[in-house]
Every structure is written in structure tokens, then in C-alpha cells.
Amino acid sequence: MAVGILDVDLCGPSIPRMLSMGRPDVHQCDSGWVPVYTDTQKSLALMSIGFLLEDPDEAVVWRGPKKNALIGQFVSDVAWGELDVLLVDTPPGTSDEHLAVLENLKKHRVDGAILVTTPQAVSTGDVRREITFCKKTGVRILGIVENMSGFVCPHCSECSNVFSKGGGEELAKTTGSVFLGCVPLDPLLSASIEEGRDFTQSFPDSATFSAISSISQTLLNSLQTD
């Protein structure tokens, strides 16, 4: 499967760090910018403003029109090739980035949005507004994921509700959305992301891997049956 990840969190581009891609040069071809590939098989392609900044600590202080223009370039001027899935990672909220993505993807089929929340009410309140945004713009909600749902002990692997639990599932029920599942706060997953290791390869027997795998498979099945 060929997958592209478009990182439009212009003020906080974290995808390159999370996938341990460093700061490779972005080249151009006749079709536009060449995305950065994570593997030799070119099965996962990335594009992020993080690859374009001269200084990784540089702040992106842009108004809406400049953000919109770059997102337009990311959608139309990147040589993505034939993709099975293009995943667009957006910042929290309902801002210029979200509107720009929808505007530039009008000529393509947008399958829908995956909304991620933590269990706390302050987070589910934000996601409730994102649900309203999706309904107003005609974007189908593929489902809701509850992140940081419990804490996995690194010593005994028991999951405890350090914060709270169930806020995402309750939000899905009250809004008539699909609840995709929970992902716990797992130190092994956090360390893997920080160190650039593939969590799925390193800890295939963990409960966290099972949760992520189940959510991914549910989404793929949903997309394939449409």
C-alpha cells in the first residue's frame, strides 16, 4: 500500500521528528516537489514545512494568505504519484489550515476526517466544535479516537486511569459518531517516537500496538467498503 502523509501543522511540524526523518533536502522534478520517502520501497511519502525550514527552531509567523498558498502548493505541486491513501495531519481547532486543505482538495474525493481527543472535558469540548466544523463543511466523520486513555505501567504493563477515561467514547455516542477505540499513554510508544524507532516492529505484542492496529484496520475496512 502506498501512503502519503501531508503535514499541514505549519506552526508545529512534528511528523519529520516522529518518523525520524531529520532534515533531508527537498528536490524538484518536472511534476513539482519530490516528497521525502521513509523507505527504499517508497511506500510512505512525507511532505512537511519542517523539511523546508533552514533552522528547525525557526518560528513560522504567517498570516492566513501565506499559509493557504503553501498548503495549496503541498496539495497540487508535490509529485505524490499513485497513492492509496493521503493522510493530512492538521493542527487542533478549525482554522485557516483546515479550510485551505478542503479548498485545495475539492477536485479530489475526501473520504473524511478522523478526530482525536483526550478523555478530559476541555479536550472533548474542542473536538465537539471540530465535529460542528465537519458538518458545516460537508466532511464525513470517519470516527473518533480517544488518545492518552489510561497509563501503561512500564514495569507490569497494567493500564491505570491516571487522568480519566471514556470522554472520547461518550462524545462519539452523544454526537452519533463512530468510536474507533482508545490508545493509552504508553512510555514505550513515547520513547520510540523520541528515539525514531518503529514501535510496531519493536513491541508487536503490546496492548498499545493492538489498539493502534485495531483502529487502523477498522479505518481501512471502512475506506475499502465505500
3D architecture notes:
- The protein is α/β, with parallel strands linked by helices and 226 residues long.
- 37% of the residues lie in helices and 21% in strands.
- The protein has eight helices and ten strands.
- It has helices spanning 15-18, 64-76, 96-104, 121-137, 167-175, 187-195, 199-202, 207-225; strands at residues 3-7, 28-29, 32-33, 36-37, 44-48, 85-89, 113-117, 141-152, 159-160, 179-185.
- The strands form three sheets. The chain has a four-stranded mixed β-sheet, with no helix packed on it. Strands 7, 8, 9 and 10 form a four-stranded mixed β-sheet that branches.
- Strand 2 and strand 3 (32-33) form a beta hairpin.
- Helix 2 runs parallel beside helix 3 (96-104) and helix 4 packs parallel to helix 5.
- The protein is globular, with a radius of gyration of 18 Å.
- The chain starts with a strand and ends with a helix.
- The mean pLDDT is 90.
- This is Cytosolic Fe-S cluster assembly factor NUBP2.
- It holds the Pfam family ParA.
- One of its GO terms (cellular component) is nucleus.
- Keywords: 4Fe-4S, ATP-binding, Iron, Iron-sulfur, Metal-binding, Nucleotide-binding.
